[in-house]
Amino acid sequence: MKFIFFSLFFLPMLLCSSVECIHPHPLDPLTPSELNLVRTIILKAYQTSTKHINLTFQYVGLHEPDKPVIHSWLSSKTKTLPPPPRQAFVIARFQKQSLEITLDFPTRSIISTEIYKGHGYPMLTFDEQAVASQLPFTYEPFKHSLKKRGLNISHVLCSTFTIGWFGEENTKRTLKIKCYYINGSANLYMRPLEGVSAVVDLDEMKIVAYSDKHVIPVPKDEGTEYRVSKMKPPFGPKLKGISVIQHDGHGFTIQDHSVSWANWVFHLGFDIQAGPKSLFHTKTQRRNDAYYSGSDGTPVKISNAFCIFEKYAGDIMWRHTEIGIPNEVINEVRSDVSLVVRAVSTVGNYDYVIDWEFKPSGSIKLTVGLTGILEVKAATYTNTDQIKEDIYGTLIADNTIGVYHDHFLTYYLDLDIDGEANSFVKANLETVRVKDQKTPRKSYWTVVKETAKTESDARVNIGLKPSELVVVNPNKKTKLGNTIGYRLVPGSVVHPLMVSDDYPQIRGAFTNYNVWVTPFNKSEKWAGGLYVDHSRGDDTLAVWSLRDREIENKDIVLWYTMGFHHVPSQEDFPVMPTLSGGFELRPTNFFESNPVLKTKSPASMHFPNCTSQHYYD
Ligand SMILES: *[C@@H]1O[C@H](CO)[C@@H](O)[C@H](O)[C@H]1NC(C)=O
Ligand SMILES: *[C@@H]1O[C@H](CO)[C@@H](O)[C@H](O)[C@H]1NC(C)=O
Ligand SMILES: *[C@@H]1O[C@H](CO)[C@@H](O)[C@H](O)[C@H]1NC(C)=O
Ligand SMILES: *[C@@H]1O[C@H](CO)[C@@H](O)[C@H](O)[C@H]1NC(C)=O
Ligand SMILES: *[C@@H]1O[C@H](CO)[C@@H](O)[C@H](O)[C@H]1NC(C)=O
Ligand SMILES: [Cu+2]
């Protein structure tokens, strides 16, 4: 199972005044100089006589100010209120313990240090994984395994995999290593050394377990190539290009971390654990290049962490053809142009294309595209006729089994619909049997609204019952008296297939429902817990929600889990065509009427001979 978390802060459309745009935004990610300062302050505090300080920075990020502080700063934008003091939150590993350190930048001081006593370990750093993946190459039993298989060690690569927890009393901070034979090919994941694996203790940085179960030939490299530069003709169907020319330039502006486009203004942050983070609201900040801290605390730059572009794919924002009026044909069409903020997260073999699409209508579409390379296991089979056992997968190429697996993606949606106090409403579509004898109709359906009082009322498995799920501000109404809100339009939903007492499912119990609502709590941000590695599932959304707190007319967080059960097919070899899913957050009685009624289509949006696209400017 793979889990990804997103943080999304949402406050629709407040505008930035010029004064407020000058201050740094309180949710700006840490700058390189702030990251350096974190390193300096912490290393100084932990400096011992030995000079060699074995402290590693597992996580360094912004310690967010409390929400009321952010709100008062945002609402005082015409005054010159200084931003709240900048602070950092650090998880460090030191002497086999996880330290939680909070630092204050203005005073350059550590304001709190706590030793984490719970289960699980902090996120793994790139650096320690890189070091761990090199360990087999100096490990004699591994060299022997390669020799036994006649493989040249200089053509072997190793990669790291987290281990999870299967009920052990005591755990160590370990990870698993699996290796691949490249020998000239580039698609390493398609060429596993099946049966060979090592376990590394990261605190000791040494191999503590090794197994070489059986010799299965490495799948051949034929057919695994995906680099166009290495391929020979014939190529696939020839595609005619469509060029994107924006005669008047692009329509968005970026100032520091703030993006303005059409009727949207939002703040775009970055966090190494969350990926993109957004506050749809106000202005400010640095460029959208992102930085994170390396395990030695030095800033590491991620170039082009986001790409931002306007998209027009021939979609229609709205249209109507009217032929009912004598001697007149009305044909009104508006083109749907949107702004996409894209981040791609490559997790080893897989690539997740994460899009946030903002529409002038006020909708936000969130899409995740899965592509990249499957995780496979090697086998002796070259045809399904030979298979007499359950292989837990699909034979996708000679000697190559694409294993069955799941992808779950949980979005943290801290929706503040025109203010913090919100409620979660299930508008249930219910069948009513007609008792009235005067009509031949036997049934109709109607909407019965149910406001969730506590957390247990808000756990929803989508698809079991038709309902619209709306986050409303019960204190704000439209002129007509409807409660303003935004609703969740679900896309691909999945329900877990593991039994609930299976260890991976205990750890991933937040997938038991597609939708949860919790009261906002700054320390309940990661659905799988802050210490996911080797977690025991005791700090997950599913556990917090057991407190069954009140959520009506409160600052609430909506959690949405989407996903895919992936049954691989031959088309997924050697690289997988993108499989997409997502959902939409859509204004629902938020505006007084269609907010894009008077939005004109840009002049250049004409698709020849496509009458559905016709418009009159
Ligand atoms: C730090 O680690 C090195 C090698 O891993 C070890 O030799 C050294 O004793 C450690 N120093 C401290 C202060 O723990
Ligand atoms: C192993 O591969 C390296 C690099 O390609 C090559 O120089 C070396 O000769 C190979 N060794 C054997 C025993 O084939
Ligand atoms: C490595 O690649 C070479 C050239 O394609 C091939 O001759 C050789 O058999 C390969 N070795 C192994 C062990 O697959
Ligand atoms: C916030 O969440 C933490 C972690 O679940 C919990 O210990 C704490 O009691 C919560 N605070 C409130 C006010 O509920
Ligand atoms: C549009 O249709 C006309 C008439 O059918 C045809 O001549 C023209 O080539 C078409 N244009 C395009 C771009 O397909
Ligand atoms: Cu998959």
From TrEMBL:
Residues 1-21 form the signal peptide. Its cofactor is Cu cation; Mn(2+). One of its GO terms (biological process) is amine metabolic process. It comes from the Eukaryota. This is Amine oxidase. Belongs to the copper/topaquinone oxidase family. The active site is at residues 289, 350. Homodimer. Keywords: Copper, Disulfide bond, Glycoprotein, Metal-binding, Oxidoreductase, Signal, TPQ. GO terms for molecular function: copper ion binding; primary methylamine oxidase activity; quinone binding. Residues 289-597 form the Copper amine oxidase catalytic domain. Contains 1 topaquinone per subunit. Residues 122-219 form the Copper amine oxidase N3-terminal domain. The modification 2',4',5'-topaquinone is found at residue 350. Topaquinone (TPQ) is generated by copper-dependent autoxidation of a specific tyrosyl residue. It comes from Vicia faba. InterPro entries: Cu_Am_Ox_Cu-bd, Cu_Am_ox_TPQ-bd, Cu_amine_oxidase, Cu_amine_oxidase_C, Cu_amine_oxidase_C_sf, Cu_amine_oxidase_N-reg, Cu_amine_oxidase_N2, Cu_amine_oxidase_N3.
